């Protein structure tokens, strides 16, 4: 977007593409090639060396071409001010690279330690939480501020006016959560930032929808749909931002407020957790050609009312001496409840791992999965953003710039639809 609008960050774009491709190959090599123990690796085969060769070629060749054509990638413009949207993109790139480097270092450091003759070590979740957690919060904050900044240069007065509504909404949500839900500082900061970003995006949608309604007379829902369809780069970016907020909500809820218990229940026993009551009824056995299935029937209650009857399945494969499990799951926007069978005892008792993960549903909605029940907001937003619809008319040629086709992202912005309404808004960072 910066390259298209300002002719800047060409080098950043090429480097980030090369790094993303190289890291994808590296992940495949680590998982399949065998440098670390994994159930997905190809074992004692020589495919690891093939992956390593492909990784080396995939990383070295693009960067050789990059340095060879370096003189053609210099920016046409300079960064005018650190208080601008271009600067927000720059800081965003640095943060993303920092998060990627921390994650990369956490995966390669145990390998280097082992190759150096040191002890076998493992980098666990606390390392990533402590380092990447604050970086992600800053990234979310920047994601809310960036779309409110103009190109080239901003002034503090206009920025304060733009931040007034989202900052007020974030403050109200934070005070409400502190009074009624939690006092954890990290949670309050995280949820406040999510409210900040979401309210800013909703405000931009409302301004554009209202401007289109005033000029065209369309009803508000139709005005919103046509606004999004006509300005795909801008509103596709907003959809991606909302998807990242959903991921942040799932991470905050699932990491700060999750509950986990391991229990053994006999038929007729119950276990209470987080306001739920899980009752174990019975286990039936089904013998298949390649496995034996143990199907446990459960009932889930809340406040004495039956929510649903669920089944958890554990299958044993004697040929491989392996077992697989299928959890009983109840998923809602507030929280997910899991009952995972871990062991079937001779007396009919079953060991269960019970988990309650608040807000994790929002992560599934935002993901780009193949399950039609779930959303895929990231992919939907990126697809809409990268498929701008073009008009069949030429835009007036600006002095010193080549003529270009007028896109809907320019023509259908609130400023273009209603030039006298004063309703303008930037595209997302």
TrEMBL record:
How does this protein sit in the membrane? Answer: Multi-pass membrane protein
Q: Where in the cell is it found?
A: Membrane
User: Which regions span the lipid bilayer?
Assistant: 12-29, 49-68, 89-112, 132-151, 163-181, 187-206, 235-257
Gene Ontology biological process = cytochrome complex assembly
Compositionally biased intervals (Basic and acidic residues): 382-396
- Major subcellular site: membrane
Q: State if Transmembrane helix is listed as a keyword.
A: yes
Cellular component terms (Gene Ontology): membrane
Name the Pfam families for this protein. CcmF_C
Give me the ranges of the annotated region Disordered. 371-429
Does the keyword Metal-binding feature in the UniProt annotation? no
Where does the Cytochrome c-type biogenesis protein CcmF C-terminal domain start and stop, copy by copy?
52-365
MF (Gene Ontology): heme transmembrane transporter activity
Query: Which keywords does the record carry?
Result: Cytochrome c-type biogenesis, Membrane, Transmembrane, Transmembrane helix
Q: Which family does it belong to?
A: Belongs to the CcmF/CycK/Ccl1/NrfE/CcsA family.
UniProt-recorded name of the protein: Cytochrome c-type biogenesis protein ccl1
Task: Please name the source species.
Answer: Geodia barretti
At the highest ranks, the source species' classification is: Eukaryota, Metazoa, Porifera, Demospongiae, Heteroscleromorpha
């Amino acid at each position: 977007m910066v390259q298209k609008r300002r002719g800047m960050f060409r080098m950043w774009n090429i480097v980030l593409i090369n790094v993303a491709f190289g890291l994808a190959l590296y992940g495949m090599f680590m998982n399949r090639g065998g440098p670390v123990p994994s159930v997905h690796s190809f074992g004692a085969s020589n495919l690891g060396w093939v992956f390593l060769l492909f990784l080396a070629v995939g990383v070295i060749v693009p960067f050789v071409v990059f340095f060879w054509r370096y003189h053609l990638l210099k920016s046409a413009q300079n960064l005018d001010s650190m208080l601008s949207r271009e600067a927000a993109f720059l800081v965003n790139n640095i943060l993303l690279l920092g998060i990627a480097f921390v994650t990369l270092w956490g995966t390669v450091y145990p390998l280097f330690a082992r190759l150096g003759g040191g002890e076998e070590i493992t980098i666990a979740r606390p390392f990533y939480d402590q380092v990447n957690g604050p970086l992600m919060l800053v990234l979310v904050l920047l994601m809310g501020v960036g779309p409110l900044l103009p190109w080239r240069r901003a002034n503090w007065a206009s920025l304060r006016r733009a931040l007034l509504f989202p900052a007020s909404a974030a403050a109200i949500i934070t005070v409400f959560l502190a009074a009624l839900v939690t006092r954890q500082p990290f949670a309050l900061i995280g949820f406040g930032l999510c409210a900040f970003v979401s309210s800013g995006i909703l405000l931009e949608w409302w301004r554009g929808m209202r401007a289109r309604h005033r000029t065209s007379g369309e009803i508000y829902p139709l005005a919103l749909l046509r606004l999004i369809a006509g300005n795909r780069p801008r509103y596709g970016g907003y959809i991606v931002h909302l998807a990242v907020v959903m991921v942040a909500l799932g991470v905050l809820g699932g990491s700060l407020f999750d509950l986990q218990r391991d229990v053994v229940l006999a038929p007729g026993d119950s276990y209470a957790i987080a306001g739920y009551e899980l009752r174990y009824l019975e286990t039936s056995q089904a013998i298949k050609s390649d496995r034996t299935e143990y199907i446990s029937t459960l009932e889930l209650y809340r406040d004495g009312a039956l929510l649903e009857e669920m089944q958890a399945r554990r299958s044993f494969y004697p040929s491989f001496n392996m077992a697989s499990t299928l959890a009983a799951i109840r998923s809602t926007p507030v929280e997910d409840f899991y009952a995972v069978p871990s062991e079937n005892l001779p007396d009919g008792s079953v060991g269960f791992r019970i988990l309650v993960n608040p807000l994790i549903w929002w992560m599934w909605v935002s993901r780009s999965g193949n399950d039609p029940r779930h959303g895929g907001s990231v992919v939907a937003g990126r697809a809409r953003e990268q498929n701008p619809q073009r008009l069949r008319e030429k835009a007036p040629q600006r002095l010193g710039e080549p003529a270009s086709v007028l896109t809907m992202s320019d023509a259908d912005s609130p400023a273009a639809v209603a030039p006298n309404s004063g309703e303008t808004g930037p595209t997302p960072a």
